[in-house]
Amino acid sequence: MDSTPALLAPYKMASFSLSHRIVLAPMSRLRSYNFVAQPQAILYYSQRTTPGGFLIGEASGISPTAHGYPNTPGIWTKEQVEAWKPIVDAAHKKGGVFFCQLWHAGRASDNCFQPDGRPPISCTDKPIRAKTHIDGVTEASFPAPLRLTTHEVKQVINDFRKAARNAMEAGFDGVEIHGANGYLIDQFLKDQVNDRTDEYGGNLENRCRFALQVVEAVADEIGADRVGIRLSPFADYNDCSDSNPEALGLYMARSLNKYGILYCHVIEPRMITQFDSRKTEDSLLPMRKAFKGTFIVAGGYNRKNGNEVVASGGADLVAFGRLFLGNPDLPRRFELDAVLNEYDRSTFYTHDPVVGYTDYPFLETNN
Ligand SMILES: Cc1cc2nc3c(=O)[nH]c(=O)nc-3n(C[C@H](O)[C@H](O)[C@H](O)COP(=O)(O)O)c2cc1C
């Protein structure tokens, strides 16, 4: 039996005193009807809350053009902010630290999710060529996006800023800027997508400008110690890849230090999509060493390799997606080295308020 559950050691993340290192990864569950978080999320998140546990909420749209899937929550209207309040409140009552993930899908969207049926927006006018949908199974074709003008890029930065303010108004402890998985920020970052000729395209510095200006705007608005960012330089999800992911990741990690943000949350190079992994020699260690704040890793972690990455200094915290989805009491199960529930992929993205959402069993209390 291993006596060093590194994942269960407390951790001080600036002003947040975490009682363990097991983070709830952000996961869209498509149960927020009409882009408004619903009461069933109170139970879902509070089931996954522990005293001093860190939760990152599902991707939440920052503006009317931000959504790419049905029934994802937003954080740009008063109604949406009000709807989040009891959910955040319930997590706080159980002692959790809860961040809101701020999301813009960019071209990974469809006219049907856009105001007046317009095309989605992006840094480019090239559509996504890949046909795989969010669930990794359904075939979907994406429309050609509208290329943002330089002026419009600045408006989107302001939308992130306003959404961060709204998240604080809803009671969240901070925000995670979604810069991963082929959505808008990642579209700007990656050289296989970004074909701009203005200050937001071309060389590495220009491609990272949008992400860093979003970070700066959000940090100015709510304080850098309440801001994290999620990145996936190595992934090719949503047809969004880069010819030199090491250089991209390292440049971002170094540049983020300028803003003194709370954390950098990075998806492991082994994850090519949200679900599929491969063998690779690539590593997040250079980014880990370069970034001065809290470093969170995600992607294909379990109890064993999660303990190892923390114990070896590869990360401060580990975010768990599918295992936490299927095991609301994951920290307890890791503590006891208990057997885990199997997650059911067929209900990840269905819209039922209970099935596959809040009906995963807890360990019996006498365990
Ligand atoms: C159902 C589901 C929804 C997801 N939604 C999001 C999301 O909203 N934002 C995000 O950054 N990642 C999202 N992801 C990716 C996860 O945060 C995580 O990176 C991924 O599941 C790999 O980690 P795992 O191997 O621990 O599951 C989602 C994953 C799943 C399974």
TrEMBL record:
Domain of life: Eukaryota
Domain NADH:flavin oxidoreductase/NADH oxidase N-terminal: 7-335
Gene3D superfamilies (UniProt xref): Aldolase class I
Cited Pfam families: Oxidored_FMN
InterPro entries per record: Aldolase_TIM, OxRdtase_FMN_N, Oye-like
Alphabetic keyword roster: Flavoprotein, FMN, NADP, Oxidoreductase
Gene Ontology MF annotations: 12-oxophytodienoate reductase activity; FMN binding
Cofactor dependence: FMN
Family: Belongs to the NADH:flavin oxidoreductase/NADH oxidase family.
Listed name of the protein: 12-oxophytodienoate reductase 1
